[in-house]
Each structure stands twice: as C-alpha cells, then as structure tokens.
Amino acid sequence: MIARLVFLSPVLLALAVPPEILVSRGLLQERGLHLGQVVMLSADARGANARPFRIAGVYEPTPDPSRFTAKRLEARLHLPDLLALAAEPGEAGAADSVGAINIALKDPADAEAFARELGARSPGVSVVRAAAGDDEHFVIIERFHAAISFVTMIGSTAFLLALMVIRADERREVAGLLRLLGLPRRRILAQALLEGLCIAAAGAIFGVLFATATQGVVNAFFQWRYDTTLVFVRVTPAIAARCVVLALPLGVMAGLIASWTLLRQPVLDLLRR
Amino acid sequence: MSPFEFAWRSLSRQPARAVLGLTGVAVVGALLFDMLMLSRGLIVSFRDLLESTGFDVRVTATEALPGMGPPVADAASTTEELRRLPELAAVVPARFGVASIDTRNGKTAPVAFIGSETRRRGEWKLVEGADLGDDADGGRPEVVVNRTFAREERLAPGSIVRLPSALPAREFRVSGIVEFPFETAGERMAAVTLRGFAYAFPSARRDEADLLLVASQPGAGSEAAVAAIRRTRPDLHAFSIEEVLERLRHAEFSYFRQVSFVLATIASFFALLLVTTLLTVSVNQRLGEVAALRALGFSRRRITFDLLAESALLVGGGGLVAIPLGLLLARGLDSILRRMPDLPTRLHFFVFEPRALALHAGFLVLAALVAAAYPVALAARLPIAATLRKENVS
Hints:
heterodimer, A: 9 helices, B: alpha+beta, two-stranded antiparallel sheet, 12 helices
C-alpha cells in the first residue's frame, strides 16, 4: 500500500499539521528517515494523490518467524488516514470500509458459534478464526532440527563406538593379565562401562558448554543478517539435560559393546599367546 | 601388492573398527550430501516452478512481490503497449483475490482466485473437463478449480460454485479441474477470466493487474525482454526468472542456505576428525610394522601411498554408502519441511543435482587427504632403528 516516500522540506510543510505515522525501525534506517520528518505517502505506485505525514515515532515490528527473512519496511497509520489515502477518489463508501475487523470474544470457545451466527446475519462477511497455539513454522523447523540431531547422534555413536573399540583393543593384553590375576569379567566390564560413561558425559558437557558459549555469536550473526530481534539459538536447562541424558546411555552402550567383544575371548587369546 | 590391496588387508585385519569408521563416514557423508542438496534445492525447485508456467519475465508496479504491493494501473493499455514490443511473445495480466464460499458442512472457507485470460501457456494444467473459455454474454461465467477445491466441495465439470462474499452472491460454472503450479497443500484455488474476476469481486478496482506475465520471443531471450520493458516503461518493475531467483537467494531462501552451510561444515569436520582418529590410532598401533616395512625397503613414498589408500578406502567406501543413504534421508527431511504452511506443494527443499554429487565427492576427497596428513607425517618421520629396538624390547 505504501508505495512511495517523497521527502519534503519541513519549511514548506511547517504551516500545515500533517497526520502522524509510526515507521518501523527497518524503514527508518533503510530510507534514512528521522523523527519529525514529513514524508509523502501514496497508495499509487507512481505516487499519485500523495499526502503528507509526519513521523511521530519508530516501532520494532513483532518478530514473525514466517517472515523473518523479509525486510520489515512498514508504517502504521491511523485508520481514517489510511482509508482516506487508499480510497479511490469518487468511490462511494470507500472511505468507510475496512478489509478486516479483529474481534476478541469473551469466551474463545464460542468462536465457531459466533462465526456461524455472523455468517448467517451478514452473508458478505467471511469469518476466519485466528490461528492459536504454536506457530506451525516453529513446529516444522523444530522437527527438522530434531531430525538433523538424530542423524548427528547416529554419526556420533559410530564415532564413540569406534573410539571405544580402539581403546578396548589397545588394552586387550592388560585385560588378559587382569583376568589371569583373578579379576572377574564383570569387574573389567564395569571399568569399561564407567570409562564409556565418563567419555560420553565429558563430551556432552563440553558440547553443552560450547553451545552455551557460542549461542550469542550464532544469534548475533542471524539477527544481524536478517535485521530481526528473533532469538535463533537458546540453550535452556531442559535442552542441556536432554543432551546429557541422551549421551550417557550411548556411552554406556558403546563401552559395553566394545568390551564384550573383547571379554568373550579366551585369556590366552587376549595375551596373544 | 598395490597400496589399495595393502590398505584393504590393513582394514580387514580389524573389521569392527573398519565397519564403524565406514558407518561414521557414511552417516556424516549422508548429512553432508543432504546439506549440499539443501543449499540450492529451493532455488532449483523454484526455478522449475517458474519455468513451468511458460513465462520467463514478471512485471509488477513496485519491487514488492505480486499481490503484496500496489497493482499495475491501466492494465489493459499497459498490456497492449507491451505486446507491441518485438522482444515479447506474450503478455498476460493477472489479478489475485480471496473470496469466501459456503462449504458443504455449512461453514465458510476462503478460496484464492486468479483472474487472467484463457490459458496460453503453463498457467495451469488441465486435469479433467474443459479449459477456461472466453465468457459468453449471459449465463454464469466459467471457473476452473484445483483438485483440493473439487475434492472438498465435490465439484465436477458442470458444478456450480456460489460466492456469498460478493453481494449479491455470485455463481460460476465449473468448466474443468486443473493443477496450479503454485498451489499450496490444502488450499482451494480457482481461476476465472478478468471479466469473471470483476464479477467475483465487484468492489475491486477495474483495469488493474497485480502481475503481468511475460514470455520473451525465443530468439530474443528474457534479458532482452526485460531491457525492452524497462526502456519502454521505466515506471514498471520487470524481473527475469534469474533476477527473481537472485532476490530469493539473498532474502527468503537464505536461511536454509546458511543452515546448510553450517551443517555441511560441521559434517565435513566430523568426517575429517573420525578418519584422522582412526588412521592415527591405526598407525600408532602399527609403528613396529611400519618400521619393519621401511627396513625391508619400502620407501617413505610407498608408506604414504599406503596410508592415503587406507584413508581413501574409508572415506570412499563411506562416501559411496552416503549417497543412497543421503537420498533416503533427504526424502524424510524434505517431507518434514514441506509441511510448512503456504508453500507450493511442488516446491522441494532437497533437490538432487550433479553439482551436489560433484561437491560431495570433492569434499570427501579433501577430507581423505587432510585426514591422512598427520598419520602420514607420523609414519614418514619414523626413526626405523629406534622403533624396531623399542618394539623388540617391549
């Protein structure tokens, strides 16, 4: 709707008191505007029927996850000013018509009944219930990231398992000696499990600390890149706990598998005799 | 024995380790392959969608996306003016609007309307019935509807669509069922002629167009068509498909490009770390063997090739498995992302391209080389006599 901004000398417009508008921070920066400046707005792409408005303030548009990649070049007008600006000259009733009316019901559960009744009373009106609950974009992005995390976890498990197999292989002679000295398999296995647990816990804690330390950098980059106040990464205690809780059983499992393949073998094989 | 045969024997001596290494490389390789497909998937897919319409230039009144900014005024004369340009083969004005219909269950539901001329190129694909015809005077205007609209409202060619949102309520006769290139999942869509559009939206301003679809002359090309439009009508904004895509690449689609870049970097680093670890440990465990081989006359170069071959087998094997695994994973990830609202059903996030495959191979070759660097240095600098003595003593 707001198609063209024409900058006028404040001196020329000092005598008139143009209506006030708010402009988004993005628009203010993009066009080098300033508070108190008088700008011309037009609903026509060629700037026809432009009207003067004074910038009374700047606002930060509510971050919208479905539109965060788009520049928020917006302005807010009083409804009568917008209607007057957008109305076709000579168009009957145009200055008294709106595109939509937002309604807050006392009881949101009445939405369906209200829509039916209003539809019956006003056949030309379309009643649409506003979306409630989590934004679907968030839900989808969360699912996507969860799937990526799952794949990464499989890769990490293979890595951890490979490390544990190497560790177990390196200590096969030690394990053989310990068994010759009388230590039961369970004791050696417990040691390997504990080692796997320690490696997984240390890795998970390092990962959480690394993510916590770098989340500011990631957020700063994406907020700068998209000129938004949306927060892209936030390491919450729940996420950190989930990360550690998932890593620990994987570590135990890796230790168990790696050690069991070793401990199944006869003692002399372990000692390579 | 060639370095590859030697490397194969070395790996098969410890099959568990080799399999785990291959698995790790295959999984991160699949992730890397997917991220390479994601980095350009939207652009490639969107280009296909734009090209499928048969129009290679879009003209709007401002830089805003069609329907998001002011419409083109004096649409009829503008269209005629552009049609006279020798660089252009076709110019079709289009209008967009949303109307309400009474659904079968007594509720109202929105329908996206496109007002245009009768189909000339790929504006939509006829699935059933007849295409949109020129409105004859008298009688109900014709409408073509998409499959979602037809299925949910049980419409078939000959059915009547009633729009209570226009006062008085307007009726259209369904001439056919079509598929629109940009229809989104669950979206009811319909197309009518410009006259039909004015009939459906009586309060809409006349002689405007949200978008002018332009097809360039085959010999001229889209760049020449855009230049001709800009020369003739500098007040309008003409975009070739490449310009539209360039804009999307830097704005709307950039998030997934950046995500794919970050994840591809992490996946490459992970693969590198995994193979380096496995090779380094393998070399450390075989120091005596390497020293013995050197003592037997194996040159440093030969040892280097052996280790490079081992790295290549691990990374190459994992990388090969990663391709079908990545394609499978991409299908799953694509199906998750395509559930996003307001996305055309034909749009894909992960699109296979030979370029992605070549890059995947390139990254893995690089990973294999870099991963082998440290173990190679370790083996090449090995003091032969000291190592053999140490092995003997131990």
